[in-house]
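Why does residue order matter? Because the sequence determines the fold. Keep that principle in mind as you read this record.
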Amino acid sequence: MGYLLGIDLGTSGAKAVLFDRDGEMIAGHTEGYRLYQPRNGWAEQDPEDWWRAVSSAIRSVLSHSRVHPEEIRGIGLSGQMHGVVMLDQDGAVLRRAIIWCDGRTQEQCDQITETLGEERLIEITANPALPGFSAGKILWVRQWETELYQKCRHILLPKDYIRYRLTGAFATEVSDASGTNLFDVPERCWSKAVLEALEIRPDLLPRMHESTDITGTVTALAAGETGLAKGTPVVGGAGDNAAAAVGTGTVTEGTAFTTIGTSGVVFSHSKQPRIDRKGRIHTFCAAVPGEWDVMSCTLAAGLSLQWLRDQLYGGAGGQPDGDAYAQMMREAMRSPIGANKLLFLPYLMGERSPILDADARGAFVGLSNIHTRKDLIRAVMEGITYSQRQCLDVFRELGIPIRTMMMCGGGAASPFWQQMLADVYGCPVSTVSSKEGAALGAALLAGVGVGMWPSVEEACSHVLHVKGERHPDQEASMAYEPYYQLYCTLYPALQQTYRTLADL
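Structure:
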């Protein structure tokens, strides 16, 4: 029969999940690790912690599954994007990895934009220079840790450090590389023009692959540390969102998903590289060879609801989180569409898509003495939903076709929120049977790489099944629309206020 192992390197922990050919989970385990914040706005992790967690998770899965290591046909990798791991000539880690949510590199991003020009940068890399992306982090180390940078011989992305420890190969793949600001996204290769302009040596960067390519095999050393069989193939895999796209079946043109987790993501698949010249949404190479993904990222989607929960209920109110959120859903349902004429802007952490403004902040607009807890909850949910619709409208403006929309993340657990999303989007919204997301996507990519399926599309068709489709209610859609249009006017009206407030 044969089994597949998906490894997902997250920000809070590493997950290893073993699947059979039908995508059924045989065993899974998550091992956590520490986030270091040496200064306000900085975020680092130790790659050695990642490896220890991955090794432990794999050993746990093998011990609980009773599957012999030789029965695992392939391994796929997924993980947090944009981080920078620096190794010396012996492959030893030189410093803790600077990860995706680190915000120290605005000065370096400004330098990148000035050096290349914003239009040229977006033309090549499909994205503006952002502090979250990898290039600014490399320039920061070069500027402030010069002696360390001079010792650097290899620069890897987080999941690719795990690949190196498993296989000894310095390799990456196109979806993860797309988030570095060093990659030619339309041409699917490292950009010679960007590397020359930024004076970054190309030999520091890993060899490039498609997501389904076999990039190496498990070494004897790694086999001893993990319990895996020596020689097991390891495929390219994908960055976390690209892997989640495979894990939800978002692998053909016209398919999309919305994630309402801590952040909010609208993600769509495209056969062509569709680039937003204004930098409001991102274009990356897809895990499907020769194709592309387009995505937005709003910074405080579910985080806004969590913030409100903490203020109204004192954390989870002595209840498990799920119970507190269930109570919030029940209360929100008692407030009408429009939350009794109350709007909420979910900019608690600044904003990335579609306004790209670190100074933006959250706001209730229209708050009055009549409003109660139920209205506050509904207004926050509607504001989060409007922020995703505003991103979706950019997709539509660019002519990106969207026929089906999946819903993922914590928000997908609420039928009420699923229906709200369908009504505000004006299109059907559904969920998928599997909840393993990125780990399953990584495993399916491994299955394609080792020949279990001829294509990513066929792998998804074999394994994934849609459930819980909700269609828009025309009357509700019409009721939401004037509130959404008003929502869209609020940020432009407040933009200068935000800037002034930040300068006080």
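The first strand starts at residue 3 and ends at 9.
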